Structures are given as C-alpha cells and as structure tokens.
Amino acid sequence: MVTNPLAPSWLTVPADVNALPVNVWPASATRNADGVIEIGGVPVTALKEQFGSPLYVIDEADARARAARIHDAFTAAAEAVGTTVTVYYAGKAFLSTEVARWVIEAGLNLDTCSAGELAVALAAGVDPARLGLHGNNKSLAEIDRAVSVGLGTIVIDSEQEIERVAAAASRHGRRQRVRLRVKSGVHAETHAYLATAHEDQKFGVSLDEVERLVAGIRSHESLDFVGLHCHNGTQVFGSAGIAESARRLLAVHARLLEDGPVPELNLGGGFGIAYNTGDEATDAWELAAPIIDSVAAHCAALGIPVPHLAFEPGRAIIGTPGVTLYELGTTKPVTVEAEGGATATRLYASVDGGMSDNARYALYQAQFSARLASRRSDASPALVRIAGKHCESGDIVVDAEYLPGDIAPGDLLVVPATGAYCFSLSSRYNYLPRPAVVAVRDGQARVIVRGETEEDLLSHDAGVRA
Ligand SMILES: Cc1ncc(COP(=O)(O)O)c(C=O)c1O
Ligand SMILES: N[C@@H](CCCC[NH3+])C(=O)O
Fold first, then answer.
1. Has 275 been labeled as part of a binding site?
2. Is 391 a catalytic residue?
C-alpha cells in the first residue's frame, strides 16, 4: 500500500500491521496463536470479558523491571564516580497504593506533588522518610501535613515558601530537610507545556536569586538545606539538556559550599519514551552514566566533591508497561482534500473511551500508536484516526495510525504506552466513569484501581433523591 497523503511524515506504512513494535509495547506483549494480543500472559479478549472496556492494563513484571533497572543503573553510575544516588519515582505519572509498593520494593523513593498523592503514598505504607513533596503552590495544610508526618524532603519552590515551611517545622519541633527548585534557564526540547526550567514559567526560582534565598533558608534553625533541584521538563530525549542544567546549577552549588554544606543535587526526571514507531528514545537506564559522568566532570573542573545525587523519573518507569484496551464502536470513512490538492480518505474509528481516559492528544497533540488486538488481519492497511465518544471534535486518542482496513465494530483496539499521565489525567467528562486499572502478570489479572460505576458518578451530586 502507498502512503496516505493525509498521514503525518513520521508515520510509515508498517510492513506487518499485526506486528507489535518493541519500542512502544510492554515487554510481555505478544500475539498468540489465535491472533489475539496477550499482555502478562492474559489475552485481551479475556480482559474484556472479565473487566469490560475501556480498561487500563499494566504489565506488572515490566513496570517492576524498569523501576529496578533504572534504580540499579543510576546506583552503579553514581558508585563509579564515588558518590551515591536516590531515585524517586515521580508519582504524578501514575500513582496507586499498589504501584507505590512496586517502586519501593525496587529500591526507589517516591515523589509526590499534592496532599492527595501524599495520602496515597502513606496509605501504601511508604516510610515518610522516603517521600518527597513538590508543588509551586503548596497549601499551608499540605506543608503542615508533610512536615507533621516526617516527610524526607520538601522542595521549596518560591521565596514565600521558605517562611511557610520554616514555620510549620518550628510548630512541629522538627528540622525539615528542604531543597530549592531552580530554573536553570535550559529550555527543554519538548512540547511547550512540558518544559519547566526556562525563565518564563511558574516553577522554581531564578538562578541569580539562589544565593540570597539559600542564605534565607540557612537562617532558619528549623530548616536543613540539602541542595538545589532542577527539572528541565518531561518527555525529553537524550542527556544533553539535563547535563547542561547540572553544569549551571553546579556553578552556584560550588559558591554555596563556601558558606555551608550542600550535600545533594537533584536533577529531576523527564526521560522521554517512544509513543509511536517514529520515536527514537534512549532508555533512561542508558542515560545514567552519561549524565552522572558529566556531573562528575563538572565537579572536578570546579574542584568540589561530587554531591549525593537524586533523580525523579516517572514516565520512563510506568509509561511503556501500560496500555489501554478499547472496543471499537463506529467507523466512518471521511474523504478530504490532502496537501497538493488530491483527495484522500481516512477512517474515523470511534472507541468506547476517549479524552477522559487519555487527554494527551488534546493537551499536547501527543502521537500514540495502536493495534487491532482481538484478531489478526491480512487486510491491507488503512489510515485510521481513533476518536473517542465525547462531545468534542478534538476528542482524539490516536491521531494517525495504519490499521487493517477491515477493522469493524466489536473489534478490540489497544493503544500502547499509556501507563503514564493517562490515568492520572483522567476525568469524568460527559459523565463517563473512569476505567479500572488492572495489573497482569504470569497469566493472572487483578484490579489495582477499581473502575467507576454509575453509583460513583452520582455519589457527589448532593441533589440526588434516594
Ligand atoms: C519536578 C518533577 N519531577 C519529576 C517529574 C517526572 O517527569 P517524568 O515523568 O517525565 O520522568 C516531573 C514531571 O514532569 C516533575 O515536574
Ligand atoms: N501530564 C504531562 C506530564 C506533566 C509532567 C509533570 N511535570 C504529560 O502527559 O506528558
């Protein structure tokens, strides 16, 4: 089949529309002898039968393996330059008590960014000393809760927060470990809404304010300054940006050492993953040594010891192990004029979920991929746009993918790489209940987050009559 002129340039016609490209699918994903996709040894047809759809499915072994691999690679790279490292799982990517326990068991700490995430981490039984708290506008109640439970570190995000955290710590008779979040000025190469270290955005403080603000932190008996923090942004490929931020922060870190200890440096997360066959992502564990070696080289040039390091990956751990299962409802071939004047047809395939379970196209024009999952097909590929069922024309889950031209109502479709920032960004828009999250492993499936029911949907409506 020739390329459809409506297809984006990165999308190529797959040699085999039934194949599962390894860069985007969970480690255990395979198509069985019946042509059905299995994840964790469980056929998607069985998942549909038992749990319905839409359904978030996580390959538990893959998620645990990625967490361990990242933890181990960063630990080894730190050891190689004579230092140590703490790897926090960024809970905002996907958080439930179960997943919190997986990452803790893999040796990671856990980063939270709201009282709600903190509550989930505590409900999972995570030792508060292994928790971090972020946020550009933490409420006084959030700060108080964090301090009172004995949180490991709080990342101070503004000048005002210094006094707020110091006051809470005094009140609780604690000396709170804190970091200061800094804008390195590096503008991450990612979607505009996903870059977080350039000057003109809401997170962190400017590099040139750091010395004054750290002096302020150090003036409080109730605060223990452990170091600077920078998070360039998310879905960033390669290590160049993070290494550049480290270089800029270390120059200030060296000056801060003249007036007191600065034991740590936290370089955030942001490691990008592949969402489609056009994405070439280096695995986060491959980036550990290049990043940490470059930190060590900058420290050597400045004549300072390599600090204890910290990182906060989220997507790189949970993104690829997660997929979303949908049932196809309606299809419509739509013929429009393509660039150059010729007409071409794309097939709109509407599924039983949409932007309420995956907001990433609507928010960032994220380009996911998909596969027909309930059967194999030899039909020639057609250009498909997978839409949801919401009352929005921008309700698109997969903007462009080649799927077998015979896909039909009742087929199951799976969108891979939805483990990060899909469940966490989910909503009840149009009163669609949030889907369940199921962990699959060794041929077994179990619910780790219960799906919402009509009763849940009505449960907050104060006007419902009994
Ligand atoms: C401060 C901070 N740390 C860590 C992360 C995790 O990012 P990612 O999931 O891309 O690794 C984020 C999200 O972008 C963040 O804002
Ligand atoms: N929600 C974003 C990531 C935000 C990360 C938090 N700073 C995404 O889906 O990519």
1. no
2. yes
- CA diameter of the chain: 73
The predicted pLDDT at position 341 comes to 87
Segment 401-444, tens digit of pLDDT: 999 999 999 999 999 999 999 999 999 999 999 999 999 999 99
The length of the chain is 466
Architecture of domain 81-318: Alpha-Beta Barrel (3.20)
Q: In angstroms, what is the span from residue 406 Cα to ligand 2's centroid?
A: 35
Asked, as a colleague might, if the bond just before 54 is cis with ω within 30 of 0, I would say yes
Q: DSSP secondary structure string, 423-463?
A: STT---GGGPPPPPEEEEETTEEEEEEPPP-HHHHHTT-TT
- Superfamily of domain 30-59+320-458 in CATH is Lyase, Ornithine Decarboxylase; Chain A, domain 1 (2.40.37.10)
Q: What is the DSSP string of 270-338?
A: -B----STT-----HHHHHHHHHHHHHHHHHHHT-PPPEEEE--SHHHHTTTEEEEEEEEEEEEEEEEP
Predicted complex ipTM: 0.98
| Rounded distance from Cα 323 to ligand 1 centre (Å) | 20
Among the bound ligands, the one closest to the CA of 89: 1
> Which ligand has the nearest atom to the CA of 425?
2
The radius of gyration of the chain from alpha carbons, rounded to an integer in Å, stands at 24
- The rounded Å distance from CA 93 to ligand 2 centre is 7
113 lines ligand 1 (CB under 6 A): no
What is the per-residue pLDDT for 191? Answer: 84
Question: Cβ(421) to ligand 1 under 6 A?
Answer: no
**Is 307 annotated among the ligand-binding residues?**
no
Interior/surface letters 118-149, b for 16+ CB within 10 angstroms, e for the rest: bebbbebebeeebbbbbbeebeeebbbbbbee
Check residue 1 and give its pLDDT: 64
- Cβ–ligand 2 distance for 421 under 6 Å, the answer yes
Neighbours of 329 (CB within 10 A): 15
Residue with CA at minimum distance from ligand 2 atom 5:
234
Query: Strands 412-416 and 437-441, how do they pair?
Result: unpaired
- Known binder of ligand: residue 315? yes
Task: Indicate where the chain has its CATH 3.20.20.10 domain(s).
Answer: 81-318
Domain with CATH 2.40.37.10 in the chain: 30-59+320-458
Indicate the SS3 state at residue 382.
Answer: strand
